[in-house]
Amino acid sequence: MRTVVPAEGPLLERVLDATYPASEHGLSRRAFTSADAAVRKTTWAPDHQRRYALVEGDDVLASAQRYELSGTFAGRVLRICGIGEVCSHHAHGNADDVQALVEYLVDDATRNAADIALVFAAPGWTLPGFEVLPTQDVELTVAESPRHGAPMTLVRGGEDRDLAAIVAMGDVRAARYRFHLNRDVDFVKYAVTKKRLLAGLASSGARQLLFVIAEEGITAAAYAVISIVNDSWTIEECGDRDPSGARVGAILQALIAREPAERRPVIRGWLPPGFVPPQVTIVTAQPSVEIVLARPLTATVDGLGLSSDDVLYWRSDIL
């Protein structure tokens, strides 16, 4: 008989054994376990995430991580069930087991009064009743001085003391969008910590993470979180008190100017619709390869019907 149980103790080790090869982060088994343990010790994680397994007797058929999130849709604050790291434990995959586990977690979230379910899915996934949350992969270029100098912007490493200002500027920007996650200090720290762990536990030189601040006085006025692999930069999230995003553009200029003789990086990310710093040009934009599926669970949400202009979602929100 198949049943769904929390993945804890020896079962968790079996789940991690099957999950880490499917991870796209290139960590060793030991590093993957260390990252998982460290993330679970963050302030946000204990009350908001838990891993589950679909089992039949002694066999583990599939596993997934469930997240308790808060979001805003059409001006209403709603409870959201997020489901990620969905993994079949069969050598060649088994869509039926994966779908059965997702359906169980969604049904359980519905019984517990969640309003929306989100599934962080692999490319090409479809699930009954779910629609794709429209997000776009953009590639951009950054204007540079012909002398390759840095702008007059003080850029420093981000710290915990900056998180409240980051949340505040994020709340202001998010207010114009019909759908977005509600991100408090603990959530932002959790998201940055996950990215830091991936960089810190990867093989030497494989990855970097930049968490940088532009400040006014001693207060963060703009920030960016950027993952670096080889000469490719990915903007995980960013924010600016200036509605134009000019400080974010200046941050990018300053980071590029650190190594003027190096080849210019390829910069990609998800930028909110309407947010293009004046120093930035969008070269290409296309529907994202990484998919977030969404489904209303209660009468409070009578269909989503979201366009790309309605959604503010950062890459670091992919859990």
CATH topology value of the largest domain: Aminopeptidase
Estimated helix fraction: 25-40%
Count every helix, treating DSSP H or I runs of 4 or more residues as helices.
7
Number of strands: 16
How would you describe this structure to a colleague?
The protein is an alpha+beta fold. It folds into 2 domains: 2-134 and 289-317, Aminopeptidase (3-Layer(aba) Sandwich), CATH 3.40.630; 136-287, Aminopeptidase. The protein has 7 helices and 16 strands. The model has no long low-confidence stretch (mean pLDDT 91).
Topology:
Blueprint: E1 2-6, H1 9-19, H2 29-40, H3 45-48, E2 49-56, E3 59-73, E4 76-88, H4 95-111, E5 116-121, E6 131-132, E7 136-142, E8 155-157, H5 163-174, E9 179-181, H6 185-201, E10 208-216, E11 219-229, E12 232-240, H7 246-257, E13 266-269, E14 280-287, E15 291-296, E16 311-312
Parallel strand pairs: 4-5, 9-16, 12-13
Antiparallel strand pairs: 1-2, 2-3, 3-4, 3-9, 5-15, 6-15, 7-13, 7-14, 8-10, 10-11, 11-12
Summarize the structure.
This protein has helices at residues 9-19, 29-40, 45-48, 95-111, 163-174, 185-201, 246-257; strands at residues 2-6, 49-56, 59-73, 76-88, 116-121, 131-132, 136-142, 155-157, 179-181, 208-216, 219-229, 232-240, 266-269, 280-287, 291-296, 311-312.
Features:
319 residues, alpha+beta, Aminopeptidase, 9-stranded mixed beta sheet, 7-stranded mixed beta sheet, 16 strands, globular
